[in-house]
Write a structure and sequence with these properties.
The protein is an alpha/beta fold. The chain has twelve helices and seven strands. Helix 8 crosses helix 9. The chain binds NADPH dihydro-nicotinamide-adenine-dinucleotide phosphate and (2S)-3,4-dihydro-2H-pyrrole-2-carboxylic acid (A1CAB). The site of (2S)-3,4-dihydro-2H-pyrrole-2-carboxylic acid (A1CAB) has 4 residues, from helix 7. One of its GO terms (cellular component) is cytoplasm.
């Protein structure tokens, strides 16, 4: 996810390669990131923490505590720490850091890589409006971003952080069926993915209700209504609601750890 954000920022032109530094653990990642992305990268977390104005912690949730333990002595009171992990809430960060430091809790998603990310941010009380806007600008360089209150943060992965995975499954199922009908694989992915992308754009750009846009596609006695009826019969909406609630339940569980 960190790589998607870095590449999204660089591709947008809002940040240059020499303004970004990173760390990783394995030689494989260090070689790949320095070779393919071209930013400075090492395995020295302490040094990176000491040198950064805005420090993104893009590790797995269970790695946060150890990394914070390692770097907390290096942080200045002006450093802005940005989290991207579900379940790492502002209070958990305060506990891990042992003091009140500027923290922005966020939840990005992987389409950031291609400038189509959807991110949600929530600052703690020490972050000024100017600082929040600076970080928001970074997130908006690789997609759309919203600031919300922390009580909704556990529900964000279901809607935007994790939801690309759900959409990929939908596209994969459509493409598999198209292949079953005889389409070559590459055309099947292109047709399914572009239709999903186009439908999403219709909602964002026309502001129309999704139900109305769906109705516009369904010719009376035509072919689409047959598919829509089959989706209802097989519980598409129920499956989506169950998936989102399961995702949010897990976020809530991680937040309480
Ligand atoms: N994947 C997604 O779609 C999204 C993920 N997130 C969150 O992003 C975070 C990262 O997830 P994801 O990118 O999928 O995971 P990855 O495992 O792909 O990336 C984690 C990165 O952290 C590095 N790392 C691990 N331990 C350390 C350490 N001690 N010091 C420095 N670097 C370290 C790893 O280095 P190395 O490669 O060398 O092992 C790796 O590059 C998680 O908290 C996840 O919940 C949030 C939104 C969406
Ligand atoms: O699956 C996860 O936990 C991370 C957070 C959102 C997307 N991936």
């Amino acid at each position: 996810m960190g790589q998607a954000m870095i590449q999204g920022m660089i591709r947008s032109g809002s940040v240059s390669i020499d303004q970004i530094s990173a760390t990783a653990i394995t030689e494989e990642t260090i070689d790949f990131v320095s070779g393919e992305i071209g930013i400075r990268i090492s395995d020295d977390n302490k040094r990176l923490a000491a040198d950064s104005d805005i420090l993104f912690l893009a590790v797995k949730p269970y790695v946060y505590q150890g990394v914070i333990e390692q770097i907390k002595s290096e942080l200045s009171e002006d450093t802005i720490i940005v989290t991207i992990a579900p379940g790492i809430n502002l209070e958990t960060m305060r506990k891990y850091l042992g003091k009140n430091v500027k923290v922005i809790r966020s939840m990005p998603n992987t389409p950031s890589l291609v400038g189509e990310g959807m991110s949600v941010l929530c600052p703690n009380e020490l972050v000024t409006e100017t600082e929040l806007n600076a970080v928001l600008d970074l997130y908006e360089s690789f997609g759309k971003a919203e600031v919300i209150k922390e009580n909704l943060m556990d529900a964000v992965p279901a809607v935007s952080g994790s939801s690309p995975a759900f959409v990929y499954m939908f596209i994969e199922a459509m493409a598999d069926t198209a292949v079953q009908q005889g389409f070559p694989r590459d055309k099947a992915y292109k047709m399914a993915a572009q239709s999903v992308s186009g439908a999403a754009k219709m909602i964002l750009e026309t502001g129309e209700h999704p139900g109305k846009l769906k109705d516009d596609v369904c010719t009376p006695g035509g072919v689409t209504i047959e598919g829509v009826t089959a989706l209802e019969k097989h519980g598409l909406r129920k499956a989506v609601i169950e998936a989102m609630n399961a995702t949010t339940e897990r976020s809530g569980y991680l937040s309480k750890q």
